[in-house]
UniProtKB/TrEMBL annotation:
Residues 15-350 form the NADP-dependent oxidoreductase domain. CDD domains: AKR_Tas-like (cd19094). One of its GO terms (molecular function) is oxidoreductase activity. It comes from the Bacteria. The keyword Acyltransferase does not apply. Keywords: Oxidoreductase. It comes from Hylemonella gracilis ATCC 19624. InterPro entries: AKR_Detox_Biosynth, NAD(P)_OxRdtase_dom_sf, NADP_OxRdtase_dom. It holds the Pfam family Aldo_ket_red. The keyword Ribosomal protein does not apply. This is Aldo/keto reductase.
Length: 358
């Protein structure tokens, strides 16, 4: 894999990124270290995490993933020099009282304190890519579909403005604690405003946006892709397998009930099933895409990943795994090309069902 640039930053990463939100919940520390070893040995230089991980989010595992990564980096001091390390500061509390005591805002001081905490947990002096996990303003996200104007009018004036967020990030960059900044779960407006204010005030310019992108959720292509292209901001595509539904493992059984894979995320965690990925229509869409893959001689996993790996919109695809075997399967899908006929069939399904996992 050739390295790709992230926006206008000096970061160069592999087009596949190892996501780690399962570390500390579904994946033990020992198994996580084995996955990290294998990923690095196979040439992946990009690692993404967050202060709120592992997932599903709960007080007992808050910060657990970063600690696991820090312990791994302490065991493999050679690894840090090879890695581009990304993490995130959590946005305003979304029913998580253990995150900043449930505060509904994220202040500049919160951003700086969160960064300091991540640095300490991961036992590193610098974070290569520091991201805001979700916007510090009212936006439709995580399954919400519509922008609420009245709620925005009522709430946004009480929240830290984008300029102040950028100024906090600037302090971290100038202190040598962060190399580049990014956003996550962002909208076209948010990206434009972050870039506009950065350029106007000489502040750090966002290098990336980390948003969902997969066969059952292609909302990036509803305008955000143009924004990212024209502003030279890289897309980090997360959930390329639709929380596992696009692997085919739920096709016969559904998410729960007889035959459902017991240790799979959407079977094991009720909270995950309540999200967009657990909607009945999202499963039905996945079944259609999975059947299409098999009809073209591909596994569902290979087709879903190849779709992301080969799209011009994507700078790097974030894969989340629970075993070395899954990691190898995902990495082995690199280099797969999808025929024009298959891509046309994929587009036809989308025309019929749109984006059920939005």
């Amino acid at each position: 894999m050739n390295l790709v640039p992230l926006g206008t930053s000096d970061l160069r990463v592999t087009p596949i990124c190892l996501g780690t939100m399962t570390f500390g919940e579904q994946v033990s520390e020992a198994d996580a270290h084995a996955i990290l070893d294998r990923s690095l040995d196979r040439g992946v230089n990009f690692l993404d995490t967050a202060e709120m991980y592992s997932v599903p989010a709960r007080a007992e595992t808050f910060n657990a993933t970063e600690k696991i990564i820090g312990n791994w980096l302490a065991k493999r001091p050679d690894a840090r020099k090879k890695m581009v390390l990304a993490t995130k500061v959590a946005g305003p509390s979304r029913g998580m009282p253990w995150v900043r005591n449930g505060a509904t805002d994220v202040t500049p001081a919160d951003i700086i304190a969160a960064c300091e905490g991540s640095l300490k947990r991961m036992k590193t002096d610098v974070i290569d890519l520091y991201q805001i996990h979700w916007p510090v303003r009212h936006v439709p996200a995580f399954g919400a579909m519509y922008f609420d104007v009245e709620k925005s009018k009522k709430e946004d004036a009480k929240l830290t403005p984008i300029l102040a967020q950028l100024e906090a990030m600037d302090k971290l960059v100038k202190a040598g604690k962060v190399r580049a900044i990014g956003l996550s779960n962002e909208t076209p407006y948010g990206v434009h405003e972050f870039v506009r204010l950065a350029e106007q005030h000489g502040l750090p310019r966002v290098a990336t946006v980390q948003n969902p992108y997969c066969l059952s959720n292609r909302t990036v292509e509803n305008g955000l892709d143009e924004t990212l292209h024209r502003l030279n901001v890289g897309l980090l595509a997360y959930s390329p397998l639709g929380f596992g539904a696009l692997t085919g493992k739920y096709d016969a059984s559904g998410f729960i009930g007889p035959g459902a894979p017991e240790q799979a995320r959407l079977t094991k965690f009720e909270s995950s099933r309540k999200q967009r990925w657990g909607r009945p229509e999202a499963l039905e869409a996945a079944r259609r895409y999975n059947a299409l893959a098999r009809a073209h001689g591909l596994t569902p996993t290979r087709m879903a990943l190849a779709f992301c790996y080969t799209k011009w919109q994507v700078a790097s695809t974030i894969i989340g795994v629970t075993s070395v075997a899954q990691l190898d399967e995902d990495l082995d899908a690199w280099g797969t090309t999808l025929s024009p006929e298959l891509l046309q069939a994929i587009d036809q399904i989308r025309k019929e069902i749109r984006d059920p996992a939005v």
